[in-house]
TrEMBL record:
Protein name (Swiss-Prot/TrEMBL): LRC43 protein
Keywords per UniProt: Leucine-rich repeat, Repeat
Organism encoding this protein: Melospiza melodia
InterPro entries for the chain: Leu-rich_rpt (IPR001611), LRR_dom_sf (IPR032675)
PROSITE patterns per the UniProt record, alphabetical: LRR
Cellular component GO terms held in the UniProt record: cytoplasm
Taxon lineage: Eukaryota, Metazoa, Chordata, Craniata, Vertebrata
């Protein structure tokens, strides 16, 4: 299966880090063993350049000029551009796994990734990992860098959190699991402070969670949780859904992309003390507006003694959940 580290290696080849004006060649060979440059304070721009070689300023201009044949397409990320510039200033970073150690944010969207492999541990400074719109069904937490603060797995095939919660990154602040295949109530037990002590934002929208009371009892342990998305789950159709959550999680600031104002909190005050109001029923109101192109029944009234053929029309509405 396609892995995160394999896709990243393909991405590096796409950036042309080994080729002019990056990498190492006749254009910069005298600087091969130059001291390493940092992200914040690149060095060596004023050093003397031997005849026949290009200065770092010239090479950087070739990367930055939008009319240059070596410029990246406009839709490439700023991180990709910055990585190429760092390699221009310090081509020796291409050796070994030094490049992955420079990466703090990794975004791999819709690349057919199926596996979060242990090669990801080479990213020792990684803080943000975005793997949306892939085919990931399991995430082994032992393969995630401990430095992660953001993990986004939206639009994947995740149906179980056990492997992810075995040894999760301790500093994680956002966990995105929207548009997956999580089913309750077996998954709620993985959403507690024991696994996510610093979680601020949690996206569980558009899964198949049904146990509102069980989920709330677990989420209430997340003392730092401020943003929660649960829309699109069957439990969000319960009539008292929003009010019960607002009163049960007093530190929550945003629920389903809607800010919780003090007036709303006062409106639902003490609703959490009445769990008997939370039934296993869902409320759905459907309104059908004007419908065009349908024959009007009165236009097909038959004469009493008519023996002609009768054409019957029938219509139905289908709801898919």
């Amino acid at each position: 299966p396609s892995s995160v580290s394999a896709v990243f290696q393909e991405y590096l080849q796409h950036l042309g880090l080994q080729d002019f004006p990056c990498g190492l060649g006749n254009w910069n060979k005298s600087r091969c063993n130059a001291r390493r440059s940092s992200w914040a304070q690149p060095a060596g721009l004023e050093e003397a350049v031997p005849p026949g070689e290009d200065t770092p300023e010239v090479l950087l201009e070739l990367l930055r000029d939008q009319h240059s044949p070596w410029a990246l397409p406009p839709d490439c990320s700023p991180q990709a551009q910055r990585l190429r510039e760092v390699i221009v200033l310090a081509p020796e970073l291409l050796h070994g796994s030094s490049v992955s150690q420079l990466v703090k944010s990794l975004r791999i969207l819709d690349k057919g990734v199926e596996e979060v492999d242990e090669g990801l541990l080479q990213f020792q400074q990684l803080e943000e990992l975005i793997l949306s719109a892939n085919h990931i069904s399991r995430v082994t937490s032992a393969h995630l860098p401990r430095t992660l603060k953001v993990l986004e797995l939206c639009h994947n095939d995740v149906d179980d959190l056990q492997d992810l919660c075995a040894q999760p990154p301790p500093e994680l602040q956002h966990l995105g699991l929207g548009y997956n295949q999580l089913c309750g109530p077996s998954q709620e037990k993985h959403l507690t402070v024991d696994f996510w002590p610093n979680l601020v934002s949690l996206d569980l929208s558009f899964n198949s969670l049904t146990d509102l009371l069980g989920l709330v009892s677990q989420l209430s342990t997340l003392q730092n949780l401020r943003i929660l998305l649960l829309q699109g789950n069957p439990l969000s159709l319960i009539p008292a859904y929003r009010g019960f959550l607002v009163d049960s999680l007093p530190k929550l600031s945003i629920l389903d992309d809607i800010y919780i104002w003090p007036e709303e909190r006062q409106q639902f005050h003490r609703l959490a003390e009445q769990p008997e109001l939370i039934t296993s029923e869902a409320q759905l109101v459907v309104t059908i507006g004007e419908m065009k192109g349908l024959p009007y029944p009165e236009d097909f009234q038959l004469e009493p003694d008519c023996e002609g053929p009768v054409i019957a029309y029938s219509y139905w509405v289908t709801y898919q959940f």
